[in-house]
Amino acid sequence: MADQTARREERRAVRIWPVISTLHRRIESRTLILLIAAAAGVWTFLNVGGEVTEGETDAFDRAVLLALRSPADVNDPLGPRSFEEAMRDVTALGGFTVLTIVTVVGVLAFLLHGKLRHALVLAGSVLSAQFVSEFAKSLYDRARPDLVSHGSYVYSGSFPSGHSMLSAATYLTLAMLISSVEQTRGTKRMVYGLALILMVAVGVSRVYLGVHWPSDVLGGWALGAAWSLLAWIILLRLGSRPEPPRD
Questions:
Q1: Is 163 a catalytic residue?
Q2: Closest to 34 (Cα-Cα) out of 228, 242, 243
């Protein structure tokens, strides 16, 4: 009897082991892909930063910035005044106040649903992104655009765009965290799509208002996206697995 039980346990272990091994390889492969993607984001940021330091982006930056201005008056952005005011509202979505509110609400929501890991990852990602943004600004110490008047108040260095980086880090990380606990495929797509729209809109608004060069925004997007990918890796390392998609 004992021998039969032992053989059954052995057969069960033989059947289960391939499943565990496959799952382990899948998780490791996902982590490796995320690491490569995050490294690509950091490399893009450093590459853009190097081009900025050498002045290689000046022609591109000036051309794009002036293309968004009236030919008759470079201090007048294209479009009616109402559109300019709307762009100020959009740029506020990447500002300190709005992102702080979004982060606090997100952290509280995850805590109320018993998702401590998600709350910690969101808070840690946003706080560390803020620190890295300020450090990078002081490191590159790039002057703000001087071709046009500024449509929004500025008080720090130009590269990278803090609004662009922090909106990418915050909204993409939040989308990843929501997607990891959401089972519906359509909802996953919606939260990622909304995060991308917000990220792009904030970056474009910074150039439109004349407070950042286009290369500042590209650098901010690259570093912010890399930061959200690192947050995803940390979530996986903490043991949280995404919910399988369900139509």
A1: yes
A2: 228
